[in-house]
Amino acid sequence: MSAMDWSATPLGPLRGWCTELRMAVSICLESRFPMQVLWGPDLIIIQNDGIAPYMGEKYPECIGRPYHEVFAEVMPVVGPLLGQVMSGGGATWSQDLPVLLDRHGYLQESHFTFSFSPIRRIPTAEVLGVFLAAHETTGHVVGLRRLSCLREIAGVTVHAQTSGEVFTDAVGALSHTSADVPYCVILLRDPRTPRLVLRPVATAGLAAVPDVFSRPGTLDPDGLLPEFGDSLVSGRMLISRRLLDRLELQPITDVPSADRALVVPLTAGGDDPPIGLLVAGISDRLPLDGDYRTFLTLAATQISSAASMAHNTAEARYQSLHDTLTGLPNRAALFDHLGQVIVEAQEHARRLGFLFVDLDGFKAVNDSLGHQAGDDLLCAVANRIRRAVRPGDFVARLAGDEFAVLCQNITSTDEIEAVAKRILVAVSTFSSHETPARTVTASIGIALSGPTTSTPDELVRAADVAMYTAKRQGRDRHQLFDGATL
């Protein structure tokens, strides 16, 4: 203060300052809290060292200059507040007020809690200037916003049934914090190809995403996007520059994005390679600091973990509802599906057909040729039944050599019997490759839904009864349940 040539400023030499100005400056300089004194009609800036870190490159040249010249970019927001104080309207209070402040060569999102208070002439109470006490809350506000985003990702993905749902829901959560992530793309590695191939599975903030990621050579060291390949192979976060221009991508958010994006690996955990990448645009109004990188790393970790959990859950559910030998739905899956379609059929006055298929003489194959031959036979029969039924019919393995076929929208007994006949032909033309060859046949019981077969148990029991009737009549045939023997 004392070393500055104040005579070169609108305030003039120190010796000419009035008592009120001297008193305000004394309070400002002796305080450790960030403060400014804005004096006179032009609001000439005087400040203490506590507020200097908030100024960035504006300090120290801002001292002695009019506030509206130094902070022209924030005047649309704070101008009315200053006007209120200078016009005698009293002090203001602003908490976490958002402003775009140019202090490092770009408009940076900033938040401040501050008060503008009048400095009055004694004894007339005329307003001579403004006293500013401020505290920057940018880190707090942005941190809470990012924490809220991470919580939302966790909340929307925890109940996802598939990894695809995880990616879509997570990108939706990220789109709600466009101030931090103007756009993003989740890319998954295609495990079916030996070369590096990435396929977009979810996106936000972009008009469209090209298929360039899956083109040969794109991710090679000399390709269009070498940093993507490097991140995928190394498992490290990398920066992609001019991504929007290189891929001719069009953002659809109002938040200006920088010419950079962070490429963050989606790591499944352990020593497994990344399953893909989270590519997140970087806001042009925030510094790319450690907090920014940590936020996107945590987001990628959450997405990877949720996707892995959803995949494992879906795999476990699939295994619990499918026969491990033939790959067909098992008895539990059949009854679950049967309960649903019976209700739907009743609501729409439609009929269901149920076929109980039991192989003839399967035990002899197992006993004479061994269990491996028996397993091979069951797999072959399962495939033949699948090919013999109508598109949309539900084929399941009940147990052992018992199979089931559920046919919806049956309009006549001829229609369901035609399905049974095709299955009989498909199975009976099959012979084992062993010597001597063993021909396989089947006995099929058929039941249609109706008043006495309106539940899964009733329908399956009726078909089972009809199947045993077919066996007693000589096997290698089908039998329609007539209701008399139930």
Automatic annotation (TrEMBL):
SMART domains per the UniProt record, alphabetical: GGDEF
Source domain of life: Bacteria
Domain GGDEF: 350-483
PROSITE patterns on file: GGDEF (PS50887)
Positions in coiled-coil regions: none
InterPro entries hit by this protein: DGC-Regulatory_Protein, GAF-like_dom_sf, GGDEF_dom, Nucleotide_cyclase, Rev_trsase/Diguanyl_cyclase
Pfam annotation, one family: GGDEF
PANTHER family: DIGUANYLATE CYCLASE DGCT-RELATED, GGDEF DOMAIN-CONTAINING PROTEIN
Protein name listed in UniProt: Diguanylate cyclase (GGDEF) domain-containing protein
